[in-house]
Fold these 2 entries.
Entry 1:
Amino acid sequence: MEVRWDVFLIILGSALVTFLPRVLPLMVLSRMELPEWGVRWLHYVPIAVMAALVGQELFLQEGKLSLLANVELLAAIPTFLVAIITRSLLGTVVVGMVSIMILRYLFPLL
Amino acid sequence: MGREQVQVEALASAGEQGSFLQGIKDCIPTLLGYLSIGFAAGVLEKTAGLSIMEIALMSILLYAGSAQFIAAGMIAAGSSATGIIMTILFVNLRHILLSAALSPYFRHLSAFRNMLVGSLLTDETFGVAINEAAKRKQIDEKWMHGLNLTAYLNWIAANLAGAYFGQWIANPEQLGFDFALPAMFIGLLVLAMLSRKQIRLDIVVAISAVVIAVGVSVLYPGNLGVIVATLCASTIGMVIERWK
């Protein structure tokens, strides 16, 4: 039931860098506006960061590029399909988890 | 049926549609999603070695699904505090856009009240709020608080439930819990791309980001890959758009 000092600092720092992007635009944008290019640049950040995270999760195993015998990559196929078809975050997460569960069970057998 | 009565009716319906209680009701359709993802986050945080107190603190102060998954994974992997905080900063930069998109509806409020509106903003509550704005051309402050607080309390409860059950789950990988994070990123990526009408440019940005992230991560292990990929791929998107 303890809170470690280093974990506390990580939580506090993460909370701060999460809080600021949430509140600053609401607080500031009623008084000033971002330059056009800034708005356009920010417009691509969500796509870029999500794709980068997905890429890192799927293609890397322990820091090395892994394209063969990669269950994560295989499980990503039904996960992407369900996301595109259902547009449901919950459905996507559930199908992803079930897919990898089945693949991990089957893989040693293949 | 005088003007007075019409006004009274208008006020009554505005009270109903824009009230705190209505905000709570409008949050209900998203609750199941929060519960399951929050539960998975709780399980992973627990199996990453965090205590129940640390998990409670994290869901109360941080309150961001993807950030909590990342923090759990990186704490378990022994990453540096700076690396964790930088990665979370970039992942949550997307909130700038959500917050900016809501700002026109809260112009009449003071900066402090705008801060309260934004402090509990998430992808899901933003989705509900922007729908409300499209329907009614306005968002009521109390309605927004009802929506936000319901989502927030539900998230904390889901996290703690996951953390509690996490102590009996010896091998979360066997049950696929570790894949909840990539699956959520896939879902958020696909939903974001489908909601915009520029799929080709978005695909170029996404593929650039994947290639840069993977390439940089192979050369320099750590968290630099995601950050460099985000900066470069967003710039690529902006430059191509300007050139066209």
Entry 2:
Amino acid sequence: MKNLTKTTLACAVSLSAAMSAASALAETQITVATVNNGHMIEMQKLTPAFEKAHPDIKVKWVTLEENILRQNVTQDIANKSGLYDVMTIGMYEAPIWGDRGWLTPVDVSGSYDVDDILPSIRQGLSHEGTLYAAPFYGESSMVMYRKDLVKDAGMTVSDRDSWEHIRDVAAAVHNPDEGVYGICLRGKAGWGDNMALVTTIANSFGARWFDEDWKPQLESKEWKQAVNFYVDLVTKYGPPGSSSNSFNESLALFNEGRCGMWIDATIAASFVTDPAQSKVADQVGFAQSPISATEKGANWLWSWSLAIPAATKKAEAAQTFVRWATSKEYIELVGETNGWAAVPTGTRTSTYENAKFQKAAVFAEAELKAINSADPTDSTLKPSPYVGVQFAAIPEFQAIGTTAGQMISGALSGSMSVDQALKSANVSADRQMRRAKYY
Amino acid sequence: MKRSITRLLMAPSVILLLAWMIIPLSMTIYFSTIEFSLYNPDQNGFVGWENFEFFITDPAFMPAVANTLILLLSVLFITVVFGVMLSALIDKPFYGQGIVRVLLISPFFIMPTVNALIWKNMMMNPVYGIFAWISTSFGLEPIDWLSNHPLMSIIMMVSWQWLPFAILVFVTALQSQDTEQKEAAQMDGATGLHIFRYLTIPHLARPIAVVVMIETIFLLAVFAEILVSTNGGPGYDSTNLTYLIYNQALLQFDVGTASAGGLLAVVLANIVAFFLIRAVGKNLTV
Amino acid sequence: MTLNQQRKFKTFLTGLFAWSVALVLFFPIFWMFITSFKTELQAISVPPALFFEPTLENYVEVQERSDYVKHALNSVITSFGSTILALIIAIPAAYSMAFFPGKRTKDILLWMLSTKMLPAVGVLMPIYLLSRDYGLLDTRAALVIIFTLMNLPIIVWMLFSYFKDLPKEILEAARMDGATPWDEIVKVVLPLSLGAISSTALLSIVLCWNEAFWSLNLTPSDAAPLTAMIASYSSPEGLFWAKLSAASTLACAPIVIFGWFCQKQLVQGLTFGAVK
């Protein structure tokens, strides 16, 4: 009898313990996969603020390097594994995945103020008018240059200079004996690395990835001109090792005062003007990307954004988080915590209208202008069937862009000629398109 | 002892490995015959040999096979030759022998990813790297390792990782070398070089075979170093077969072609293994 | 010079040469360690900064951003767990092959090694789908299973080579006394081959610890070992070499130190049956 009471008691205790565990479980835990870029790391650090406002949601982070993240989330979403509740994806994936029905549309109701989102960014992240990913930060590309060096060389840099003029400025500033190189540009192979820049150059020379029948155009006259120009420019006036440099490497070079000019993502503006990391913070000037035959597609458009996979069982909590992280209030929170120069930019009109931001960010105007001038639906001189400035938003493009990137970095390092590189890239693109039965 | 008991003892290993081989292999064979792209997971039509054809006719295929073999043979050569020399060297007593040994084997414990990061950033970077600094100190133009000598850079990284393994095995073997025999040879007036050639090398024949065997398994699959440092480029200059398959599977998300590539890699690995086992096999009393 | 002096001089030269080679080969690790105590600007300064005021800020930052203890624990559990499991499976097999070889023993061993020839990335999809279907994604169990199977062939082979060279008479004597196969393994074979077993285990642990492909693709979050932690530090926006070095040092230190301590074991046991 005594034993029985003991057992009952034990049961009761364990039952109540189980119940309290159950009530703790009512709190939803969401897993957020993200890139290890500065703004995302900041978001991760601000998680307590979100959890405080929404005590029933706990956030778990998976922070990975860009390529590995892309592999992981693509595996996860295509196989419906459901490991992640929120994924960080780019402007390339958003419309394709949206079209596949893999993503839950972003809940833009109520206080979210979706009309505040910059129109080109919103368009790039939508498919048939539905927003499938909420922009966390957005970027275009522009020229960043050293006012002091350019002035000493007796040159000027202004909006929409011709590429030939940019080359002359690079030549005038180039001084490798002092460790200063005329121009730093991306050279590392990758469709999001060197091909982002090279495509914008090609666009401005009047080239396009595909013609109206989806035939790859990499061997066209315009591509040859553009890539020859690029290889010549970087070989003559670029830093050593350009063919393995991408954003990071160039940023470090520029911050060290080793680049006269740098054409890259607008997001760099907040880093190169930050005296804590840049030796040349007060000498940086900004200008809109150079052009040649046309202004169309001369600067790229990209956004890292948060999306919710259709397979998640925690869609509601995920929506709450996505809305929080891409809200005006979040931008304000970062502004108040870390200073207005460090807020994630390129997403909302209200950010650029904010007086505190305008005062803190000398690059605000140039950045907004660049983003607004990029039109993913009309980025080539000749008509093209695809959407996207520095990429074509079709599933096959990853393969095509990756190979083209490898070839062009080969041309840059001198292991093959530009004509050879473009020919191999075109052959490979043709193979992919044929295989996917475009023609 | 009854055969049945010996079979029973082997069973777990054999069954597990059989499952480990057959299940993924048969799935891979199946995938290699269908159209299977992660971006279109619902289109799964039978395509016959198309994936194999697509993989073999890839312009990167031949360079990748060549690079795989060059990488394998160079690293084998470097680790075996330097491994034998260094282990013979540190076999003799000298001041701080223990510490030297510890230092020499350390690289083997470093993760391949970290290995590549250290070499790429801090050693080979043409602007900030140690090598560039050494070059400029001597008034030379810094070498842009990863762009101009990509495969050689990878060979350096991989050798750095595997040389310690060779040293470990050879040092172990040398400890068991007959010292009396050596002393007798010395009495007879044999030089150090003679002893090395006629006593040490034959004694090491078997460990060399072991090192070649194990390293081959891992070197055919070198991947992390390439991914982190050169991404297979520039061009196809540092793309090996594993990286090419990775490219298909996880950059292009074409599982069908990647599976076909994986099967071709198995065939290649077995061809290599066949020749290697014939070359070193007589020393390999398996 | 007398003969003795000559010999001393030779020893000195040997030592000098060995030391310089060792220092050169160790330098990259040393440099990573040093860089982890620099500020980011010092890390990329030219000429390389040798004298600087060491800072711990990188380690603080790494600790803030990732749960080092969790990742380290995952690494320890998966590498030790799979090694122990593999040993339990491999020892009986190696014993049976070494002491009761049949006609097919050699073929079986070669076949076992050949299972390692299938490149991991080629079979990623099958394994990923299987793990998903059995609910093993992002669990330590998945890694333990894969690591066990991955290293099993090498472990069997190493143990086999060693067992084969044990004097058969001892076993026969034990059998005369009526020992079962179990007794033979536990009471005779194991005590005689502790050195070989521990060095085999060490090798397996090192290989598991440094494995990055499976851990990145199957266990990115809860069960992520240290190799996956490194992936969140490589090439972010901006060059953070100092932080990367700190994270790398943290990831490699346990296994390097472990290796140093067990170095003697390794050097005694990695015979692969080479001792005649």
